[in-house]
Design a protein that fits this description.
Order of helices and strands: HHHEEEEEEHEHEHHHHHHHHH
Radius of gyration: 28 Å
Number of strands: 8
Number of helices: 14
Largest sheet: 6 strands, mixed
Shape: extended
Helix content: 55-70%
Number of domains: 3
Distance between the termini: 16 Å
Strand content: 5-15%
Length: 354
């Protein structure tokens, strides 16, 4: 992607002049604006006596295929739902809403194209689950592996954050107790006619064997919890040894997370579904024995989405192409220095990605 500014520099022209020239003459945007083609797919909804227009900049039935992805993208302060083709990486639907019933009304315009879809990769959001069941009745749902792993790592990091917040709370309470003590001592000094000399607040933080305090240890351990133990650097190994000695619960959470990641690794695609389900059940049972709240919440997500998760091992599909598409859209935004005219931006987005 080349920015308008770079084009202007090559031509020796003002970037603003080149931009206006492209928008007004070359792009076809003005003709589309005059004919109403920009808003031809927009949907009007009614709520509490008011009319709301849902912007649908892209609706391309021809971009539908056997393998589809659905995801959301945050653009200019709003969330858009994007339905894209895994094989061509082209957008079939882009709508300025994440509401399932509204998306269903828009998606019905695909007609028989919906029956072509055999797999749909999605995250675990209930609105997308309902929408895909209603629109793509012949499609197998495949849970996005990267979304699941992200939820897992968020759970592990939440254990670390919980310990850090406990330390910060203890320090805050100690500071408040010191402040109260100083106020009491000051009042006593004034009552007895003595001079008051304030004492500086000190909070002892012992230094651990690797040179970190407990607070520093918890902050600096964030990165190593994302990495498998075999990929740790020497300093990460040393810090992890100290961390897990101080917080055994965090060690349990990390080890369980690593076991789950190995269970869902790419080389397990094609493994028998029954065996993978038994392994998942055994892993969940181990988590329940540890009684780690953050991981127990993650297990609830697994048990309510077991089918789509196990379909990963059958089809080996992820939402990676949808994430890559989101990244390309973001780069498109950055190259064009943001979104100044939303209609023109969405018009160009449709030409470029659909």
């Amino acid at each position: 992607m080349i920015s308008i500014g770079n084009v202007g520099h090559v031509l020796g022209m003002s970037s603003k002049k080149v931009f206006r020239w492209y928008r007004e003459v070359l792009s076809g945007y003005k003709e589309a604006e005059k004919t109403g083609a920009l808003h031809v797919h927009d949907l009007e909804t009614y709520s509490k006596g008011e009319v709301h227009t849902i912007r649908v900049p892209i609706l391309k039935p021809d971009n539908m295929g056997q393998h589809m992805n659905i995801d959301e993208k945050h653009i200019d302060g709003e969330y858009y739902t994007i339905l894209s083709n895994l094989d061509t990486n082209k957008i079939a639907l882009m709508a300025k809403t994440v509401k399932a019933d509204t998306l269903y009304e828009i998606g019905r315009k695909f007609g028989d194209k919906c029956f072509v879809v055999s797999t749909i990769a999605r995250d675990l959001a209930p609105n997308f689950a309902w929408l895909c069941r209603q629109l793509f009745m012949n499609a197998a749902h495949v849970a996005d592996k990267f979304h699941i792993i992200r939820l897992l790592m968020d759970a592990v990091q939440s254990v670390r954050v919980r310990y850090r917040q406990d330390l910060l709370r203890m320090k805050r309470l100690a500071r408040e107790a010191h402040k109260m003590s100083e106020q009491t001592r000051q009042a006593e000094c004034h009552a007895n006619g003595k001079a008051f000399r304030a004492e500086k607040f000190e909070y002892p933080e012992p230094v651990l064997s690797n040179g970190d305090t407990l607070g520093q240890l918890l902050v600096r351990s964030r990165g190593l919890l994302f990495v498998m133990q075999s990929d740790w650097t020497k300093s990460q190994s040393e810090r992890a040894e100290v961390l897990f000695l101080q917080y055994p619960e965090l060690k349990n959470a990390y080890n369980l997370a690593c076991a789950f990641r190995r269970w869902m690794s790419k080389d397990q695609v094609g493994a028998p579904r029954d065996r993978k389900e038994e392994q998942l059940t055994a892993w969940i049972e181990k988590v329940r024995k540890t009684n780690i709240d953050e991981l127990l919440s993650f297990c609830e997500t697994l048990t309510s989405n077991t089918g789509p998760i196990l379909n990963y091992f059958r089809f080996g599909r992820t939402n990676a192409s949808a994430e890559a598409l989101n990244s390309n859209i973001q780069r498109f935004i950055n190259v064009n220095y943001g979104i100044r005219n939303s209609d023109f931006f969405l018009y160009r987005l449709e030409k470029y990605f659909a």
